[in-house]
Design a protein that fits this description.
The structure holds two protein chains of two kinds.
Chain A: H1 3-16, E1 28-29, H2 43-75, H3 92-125, E2 132-139, E3 142-146, E4 152-154, E5 156-160, E6 165-171, E7 176-180, E8 185-189, E9 193-199, E10 205-211, E11 224-229, H4 231-255, H5 260-269
Parallel strand pairs in A: 1-9, 2-6, 5-11
Antiparallel strand pairs in A: 2-3, 3-4, 6-9, 7-8, 7-10, 10-11
Helix pairs in contact in A: 2-3
Chain B: H1 7-11, H2 16-46, H3 56-91, H4 100-119, H5 146-173, H6 186-218, H7 231-265, H8 272-286, H9 301-312, H10 315-327, H11 338-355, H12 357-361, H13 363-369, H14 373-403, H15 409-435, H16 452-482, H17 496-499
Helix pairs in contact in B: 2-3, 2-4, 2-16, 3-4, 3-5, 3-6, 3-7, 3-14, 4-5, 5-6, 6-7, 6-8, 7-8, 7-11, 7-14, 8-10, 11-14, 11-15, 14-15, 15-16
Classes of the chains: A alpha/beta, B mainly alpha.
């Protein structure tokens, strides 16, 4: 084989590298970045602040435009039948100015909002190191929560207060979306991927969980709740549940079929 | 007049104006079907628990029909079918579209698509996967007839692509002598831009829904993680089309609004060239923002951040268009006829719609309001209600040219304000319960019983809107048969479709081919004032 032919075939091989199928990866796990962060104030508190601020921002923009438009609509009514508009053609400089100045103003507001939004986005997506991890499995039409000691609950997410909670989520069938109203946090669950969300339950109480991605006839009945308990109370509950399971599970565990979701958990949920 | 006489002449017509009227008929039929399903949904939600139906599947069918038929059957055919076909060739001084036969093919494909969509109401396994058709749900048997969904989208898509090629060629090559690119009406620019976007993005949508059926019926695994596919692939492809689709609707209705405002304010478009380039800027800007429909879908964090920024950048061209629109009123001479009433209502709706879009652009805010009534209310304000108001205003504006008669001003104005008030009573309360957590696409809201009063209020709004729509339809029927005879230029517009045509433009549109003098513009009101009457 000549040199040219060899270089040619090597070049071809290199070019076709991206085309060679890689071994199929059954589950893509969304990595959780920056697990060393400590956030003093929970994201949902910042969410309300930011939303409030953005509402002021858009109210000012909207009211300003509406008032100017209303004034023009009133002030420039036709006075006599043959009247025509008196708007003059802009000079090239004025036209450019009327483009650059508004664009600069919008841009400034956009960049300000973007910076604010990015800050909060990072809070939402970078999970504190001491987060307590719970697995969530969505299925038509219920939520299953699995605790580190394999205790499972259905439709009720019991969590200890004042502890960051990390949810690692996947779906058994179609796309669902886990939304907790109190903590202003939503993330989709889907087959083939493990997604995550975290929140900070700061007060003891019960809060609504709903599904936020259309999943069929039972979509609007796919709701549950988050039950925030005092830490000691939570530990006591978890231990009693675990004890109940180990007492009755000797037969059940032998028959347990390893589902794809369980497979995921073995690889990715374990710390 | 040269109207077709026999039914064969109607069906096989190649006249762009008759084809435009076929588009208008299709879009009004779609509006009535999708509007009825909206009313049914609102009555269902007006009180807690089952009201009209105990079957959530029936509700989901109404919801699927409402979304798909309103967008693909009502708005796009009205804007890119009726206005693009009936108005644009006359505005540029052309005798017809560039390819009249392709034009006829487009409209009959559209009708086929709409009839197929109506079949979804009667087939036993109606598709209920929403207009978005997300897999894996849309590939399950729960979702019903996925093949029908794919077929409808593909048929409508082919119709759109043919229409888009045709219109782009018409604007590029069929302009009358003396009409340069910077002398085109804003309607022409906006419809042209929207059609370029259709050409770029529709094929992606058609491919993505075709893969759904391949997956479901032939066992391909494009969207099936079990076979190495990816659920998110569909969402990326779908929104790569469907975000630009928002501008495919938005731009033409802004264009019509610009023309109506210029006519009734007898003013030039403020900063016309910048407005034109802002319109064109929507093509690149809209192509890179689709992730904001999937901020909570498990996509990488860097992508969410990046597309938060690109999404905020939409405000630049959009802000320039809004500025041009409001400044076109400045020093104007505004006459308040029915079309202007609709457009004024549209403008205030658009302000609400545009500003409520800003929080949604931030991924961080989306974590709290994704898929809630906040989103639903926002896109109804910015696209659905504003769009409908501009379309109805536009129909009133061209009513004299379509029928040769005038409608009743009183009925037209009352219908505009009933529609405006009614839609605000529907969407205002829903926005606020959206912030409190009310999710979209819910048949019932047992977990949020405190929202019942707001839902009931929104249902009252639907009653007001419906009365407005009925008055509007009656005013059209009444005007068509009983209205006063119209003149060729009832608004003393400077635009070609009014100054150079008969009362009802006949075949070939113009008695003599128009040649525009040096420096002519459809907005040059300060130079000459046309006194109306036919040429």
């Amino acid at each position: 084989m000549s040199i040219q032919a060899r270089t040619g075939s090597m070049a071809l091989m290199l070019l076709s590298l991206p085309l060679i199928p890689r071994p199929a990866q059954a589950v893509q796990v969304v990595p959780v970045p920056g697990q060393s962060r400590q956030w003093d104030v929970p994201p949902h508190v910042h969410f309300d602040e930011l939303l409030h601020e953005v509402f002021w921002d858009i109210t000012i923009i909207g009211v300003l435009m509406a008032v100017v438009a209303a004034y023009f609509l009133f002030a420039y009514r036709r006075r006599f039948p043959d009247e025509v508009g008196r708007l003059q053609k802009l000079s090239p400089q004025a036209a450019l100015g009327w483009m650059i100045i508004p664009v600069a103003l919008f841009m400034a507001d956009d960049i300000y909002l973007f910076a604010k939004g990015w800050e909060l986005h990072k809070q939402y997506r970078e999970v504190p190191e001491n987060a307590y991890e719970i697995r969530v499995t969505g299925a038509m039409w219920s939520w299953t929560y699995t605790y580190p000691n394999e205790v499972e609950t259905y439709g009720e997410l019991k969590v200890p207060a004042e502890t960051p909670i990390l949810l690692r989520m996947s779906s058994e069938d179609v796309v669902h979306s886990h939304f907790i109203q109190q903590y202003r946090v939503t993330e989709d669950l889907m087959p083939g991927r493990v997604t995550y969300m975290w929140f900070m339950p700061d007060k003891v109480g019960e809060y609504v969980v709903t599904c936020r991605e259309y999943c069929g006839a039972g979509h609007s009945s796919m709701y549950g709740k988050v039950i925030v308990m005092a830490r000691e109370e939570f530990n006591a509950w978890l231990e009693s549940e675990a004890a109940a399971i180990s007492a009755s599970a000797t037969v059940a565990s032998a028959q347990q079929v390893v589902s794809p979701a369980a497979d995921v958990s073995a690889r990715d949920f374990g710390r | 007049m040269g109207q077709p006489k026999t039914w064969k002449e109607w069906i096989f017509t190649l006249d762009h104006k008759i084809i435009g009227i076929f588009y208008l008929a299709a879009s009004l039929v779609s509006f009535l079907v999708a509007g009825t399903s909206a009313a049914l949904m609102r009555i269902e939600l007006g009180s807690l628990g089952p009201t009209l139906t105990e079957d959530a599947g029936v509700y989901n069918l109404w919801l699927t029909m409402h979304g798909a038929v309103m967008i693909l059957g009502f708005q796009i055919p009205a804007l890119l079918g009726f206005f693009a076909n009936w108005v644009v060739p006359i505005m540029i001084g052309a005798k017809d579209m560039a390819f009249p036969r392709v034009n006829a093919l487009s409209v009959w494909l559209l009708w086929s698509g709409i009839l197929l969509a109506l079949c979804n109401l009667i087939v036993p396994d109606s598709f209920n996967g929403m207009w978005t058709g997300y897999p894996p749900y849309s590939e399950t048997d729960f979702a019903g007839n996925t093949a029908l969904y794919s077929l409808i989208i593909i048929v409508l898509g082919i119709s759109s692509v043919f229409g888009a090629v045709n219109l782009a060629c018409t604007v590029m090559f069929m302009r009358a002598r003396g009409i340069g690119w910077y002398q085109l009406n804003m309607t022409v620019w906006c419809v042209f831009t929207a059609n370029i976007m259709q050409l770029i993005f529709v094929p992606v949508l058609a491919a993505s829904v075709l893969l759904l059926s391949l997956d479901k019926y032939l066992g391909f695994g494009f969207y099936d993680p079990g076979q190495g596919g990816d659920v998110l692939l569909y969402q990326n492809l779908f929104w790569f089309y469907s975000h630009p689709a928002v501008y495919v609707v938005l731009l033409p209705f802004l264009g019509i609004s610009f023309d109506i405002i210029a006519t009734f304010a007898r003013n030039r478009i403020f900063n016309y060239k910048v407005a034109v380039w802002a319109t064109l800027a929507f093509i690149p800007v809209s192509s890179d923002v689709w992730v904001h429909h999937a901020f909570v879908a498990g996509l990488p964090n860097w992508l969410r951040t990046m597309q938060t920024f690109t999404t905020l950048m939409i405000s630049l061209p959009f802000g320039l268009l809004m500025l041009s629109m409001v400044m076109t009123l400045y020093k104007g001479s505004i006459e308040y006829r029915t079309p202007m009433h609709w457009i004024v209502g549209m403008f205030f709706m658009l302000i609400i719609g545009a500003t409520t879009g800003i929080p949604n652009a931030l991924s961080a805010i989306d974590y709290g309001i994704s898929d809630s009534y906040v989103i639903m209310s926002h896109f109804h304000y910015v696209m659905a209600i504003s769009g409908a108001m501009a379309i109805f205003g536009g129909i009133y504006y061209y009513f004299p040219k379509l029928t040769g008669r005038m409608y009743s001003e009183a009925m037209g104005k009352i219908s505009a304000w009933l529609f405006f008030i009614g839609m605000n009573v529907v969407m205002g309360p829903l926005y606020f319960i959206g912030i409190e957590g009310m999710p979209r696409r819910y048949y019932d809201y047992q977990m949020f019983p405190q929202f019942e009063s707001m839902h009931a209020l929104a249902t009252v709004g639907v009653v007001i809107t419906t009365i407005g729509v009925l008055i509007m339809l009656y005013s059209w029927l009444h005007g068509m048969f009983r209205g006063e005879k119209a003149t060729a230029n009832p608004w003393q517009s400077q635009s070609l479709e009014f100054t150079h045509t008969d009362v009802i433009p006949g075949p070939g549109n113009f008695p003599t081919p128009p040649v525009m003098p040096e420096g002519w513009s459809p907005y040059s009101y300060d130079k000459t004032v046309t006194k109306g009457g036919s040429e």
